[in-house]
Batch of 2 targets.
Target 1
Amino acid sequence: MFVKTFKNNYFLQIILLSIIPILLWMPAFISAPEPIATNFDTPIYKVIYNALSFSKTLSTILAFVLIIFQGFLINSIFSSNQLSASTTFFPAFIYILLLSSNHSLMTISPLLIINTFILIAIFFLFRSFDKLEGLDEIFTSNLFVSLAFLTFTPSILFVVWIWLTLLNYRFYKWRYWIISLLGLLTPVIILIAYYFITDLLTIRTTSFLNNINFIPNLFVTIDPIDFVFYIAIGILSLASLFNILSSKADNNINYRKKTNVIVILFLISILPSLYSIGKDYLIYFLAPSLSLLFYHFFMTKRKLIYSNIIFSALFLLIITKLILSLY
């Protein structure tokens, strides 16, 4: 039902996108969870957290608005770059569902903020391929990855995604790599200069070095429903990855290059997610890339009945996980 609707019925898509997210978030609107703080929070998120921690309800409302905005943004990015049909909101729907699977996540979190920066970085990376040189776009995409790092420390690993994307686009000239480094360093230099002027540089540097963890803790306890959820996501991700890679040869160079950007993002997203194993917000790292991988997997099946069955099972698993998170 869902897959067929998002393939053929534009009006019903709007209805589903208007109703289902509100229903999923209704428990949070009634009883808002605490805003999320982690050991990896850096200055940008600390400012946001301090500004919103006084009101759980406001944090939940803003998080809901931001997730809806991100869903439509990612849908617009994919459709405008011919990675998805312009008549479907399925990538947005998948993204919103994945980030609505846990009651405790229905609030402001550093991962929600960095996803905004990563989506904007995707937008500019795609634009860089469409330009003659794309140097401005490369600088801007790196700048937003740097802002993600200044929100949540492990996000610095997305730098590897940027650099692999440059190789994917065959941007081999030294100018691209210098511009990339300048984009990464600009927000950091501005922050260091601010701390220096306000005599906080030593204190902030010491605090950062004391809290940083280079090795992720992989020995954690995972709830049974989370274990089932991520096993299901993992199996579906591998199937979707194989599906999109095996079909790339049938498309033009623009599609192949931009699809590679998302595939690389998915693979690199696994690295920072290792620092969140056992945490509810792990899915945030994977959601932007999974929205395209899952979209392609479900939409390209010759018999939609199989896509509908698999997607319905995923939808029921998300609802089950959400219900269990209430207790």
Target 2
Amino acid sequence: MTLLFWILLFILFYTFIGYSLVLFVLLKLKKLFFPNRFLKTDKNYEPNVCLFVTAFNEKDYVHQKVENSFSLDYPKEKIQYVWVTDGSDDGTPELLKKYDKLEVYHLSERRGKMHAMNRGVKFVKAPIIIFSDTNTILGNQSIREIVAKFSNKKTGCVAGEKRIVEKEADAAAGSGEGLYWKFESWIKNMDAELNSAVGAVGELFAIRTELFEDVETDTLLDDFIISLRIAQKGYHIAYTPNAFAEETASLNVKEELKRKIRIAAGGVQTIFRLKGLLNPFKYGLLSWQYFSHKVLRWTLAPISLVLLFFVNLFIVIQQNSWFEFQFYTVFFYIQILSYLLAVVGWYFENREIRFKLLFVPYYFATINYASIRGIIRYFKGRQSVNWEKSKRA
């Protein structure tokens, strides 16, 4: 039983801390011994691009998104604006058609985001597609930062950075999500510099149009599947934190759970659809990155977190060491304390008491709970392909 304890503890440490430390060391070694093996880019590269947005009943965000798109620092004659609004019945298509520069493609039937993307890409004329969500605001230099990466022919996809707009009044979702994405961006940057980023986020990513292939319409994580299938073809997924998409956090943890459960279910789906990517003999370093950064986090880590608690409890009972200063006993009480802090964070959020330090353990416990819920939902076949929107702060 003690062996199982250490195996579970290792999985958790490696998933949440160890992998990033290994990346940090390997990147330092690469910079020291192979300084010339980093992708070179050209800041003056200015190809035509397509700003591509899929929207479902987003009339409240249309104006700010369109104005933001028009204000980006890039030659306007080189930008094609494509919006696909399948299923929207709140006036979104009619609002968009008031803007002469936009190409709006609408179908009354709602068949999911991936179907809309497959359909909409056929109207793209530019060699580079930049995908973005309706409720995000892009940084002014985002297009320039992205296309500079494409000046290198080895780059097939560019991942932008997702930023959470933090507010003093943020609840647990805002505090936890903001910290999570800062940490995630740091890892993604190291992944990209060492070899390749492991996927992209739908808030902002770009691909070479010629590399797009229709994706299964029941796909839950379109951004991840599209980007990693391009990596499977031998292309590099670059990452640029200077191209960023800002959005507010989920209104509360209950709303954040909607997203995280869906993402977890999509993660399991992705593992089956990209199972070939786990072959290190074919994909080398990318397989290790994918397994460490995503597969462990989506599957083994949340399950290990639960098992570790009960295995630790069994060891303490077996040794009858409740009041002894032994490692297993101390570690068990540390776990108890962590979960108690998560409960206090839950209580504070429900009482609208803003104490951000306690929101972090609450958010961490919540996203791992969501992962387990997502795994169960996927295997029960209950995850709809259509997004259930989360309310934003």
